[in-house]
Design brief:
The chain has 289 residues and is of the alpha/beta class. It has two domains: 73 residues, Orthogonal Bundle (434 Repressor (Amino-terminal Domain)), CATH 1.10.260.40; 184 residues, Endonuclease, Chain A (2-Layer Sandwich), CATH 3.30.870. It contains twelve helices and six strands. It has a six-stranded mixed β-sheet, sandwiched between helices. α1 packs across α6 and α4 runs antiparallel to α5. The protein starts with 6 loop residues before the first helix and ends in an 11-residue tail after the last helix.
């Protein structure tokens, strides 16, 4: 798992799986507590991510729930990574609580799928594009604009780590046509996209408006995939975010992503769509001295 650590995200991720296994086994918190020799309150805290279980506690609980040995070993291995520092700590003052878990999880994910119907995903934004968006956002205090943008730029470095995040982003065609900032901002942003999609870590796919109705008309969503943990869905809402933990529901988002990819432009044609828009933002002629 990548080394951009976050102990709280790891606790949350392990807790989600412990709860899912307990629910599938049909066991109560009281029964789990009796097997572990602790209070039911501790089971609740372990499942909510407040406490990080020791490897032997994970083993006892998962064996009680009838989990296969490889799952016991997989989750127990995560416990050894709980001493990593929280990478986003310098921006604690500008990150809302509902976002902290996501950026922590993104930091330890292997791959990410995101669907963006309105604006470019944060991982693909240039500094000036991000600044233009935060300037009109009701979620960002005016005195926090610069720090929120700096955090977004730091978050993007995950795409270029030694073990980089592999990003697949499906964006609506209208996103490329929506002006954000001035012409220079859009030109720089489109040039940035054209470079990113040539890398091995970013697969940008444009969804033509001509496709019409599709499976994701209800709005944007993200799926994070991990080497040693089950995938998590993430959906932002006006006043926070929803973390999708149930694996049947997560599978539904994964299938939606696959269907979006099946009707989106190919990677090559998506790059051509970006480059066509770039042609409309030609450099302004400089005054001769």
């Amino acid at each position: 798992m990548p080394e951009r650590g976050d102990p709280s995200a790891l606790r949350w991720l392990v807790g989600v799986e412990l709860r899912n296994y307990r629910m599938r086994a049909g066991e109560t918190s009281a029964a789990a507590a009796k097997r572990l020799g602790c209070s039911p309150g501790k089971i609740t805290h372990l499942e909510s991510g407040r406490y990080f279980p020791q490897p032997e506690e994970i083993s006892v609980l998962l064996e009680f729930y009838g989990a296969p040995r490889w799952d016991v070993d997989r989750l127990s291995s995560l416990a050894g990574r709980a001493d990593h520092k929280t990478w986003w700590a310098p921006w604690t003052d500008v990150l809302p609580d509902w976002l902290r878990t996501f950026v922590g999880l993104e930091g330890i994910a292997e791959s990410e799928f995101t669907y963006a119907p309105l604006v470019l995903p944060g991982l693909l934004q240039t500094e000036s594009y991000a600044a233009a968006l935060t300037a009109v956002s009701v979620r960002v205090r005016p005195d926090h604009n610069e720090r929120v943008v700096s955090f977004r730029m730091a978050r993007q470095r995950r795409l270029h780590d030694d073990t980089p995040l592999k990003l697949t982003a499906v964006i609506e065609e209208a996103v490329l046509d929506r002006p954000v900032g001035d012409a220079a901002t859009m030109r720089d942003q489109l040039e940035h996209l054209a470079e990113l999609v040539k890398s091995d870590t970013v697969d940008l796919r444009v969804l033509p408006t001509a496709v019409g109705p599709h499976v994701a008309l209800s709005g944007r969503f993200t799926v994070l995939n991990f080497r040693d943990a089950q995938s998590i869905g993430y959906v932002e809402i006006p006043d926070g975010a929803v973390y999708v933990q149930d694996q049947d529901q997560v599978s539904g988002y994964i299938r939606s992503g696959e269907r979006l990819l099946s009707v989106a432009l190919s990677s090559t044609n998506s790059l051509e769509a970006v480059e066509r828009r770039l042609g409309t933002y030609s450099e302004e002629p400089r005054d001769e001295v």
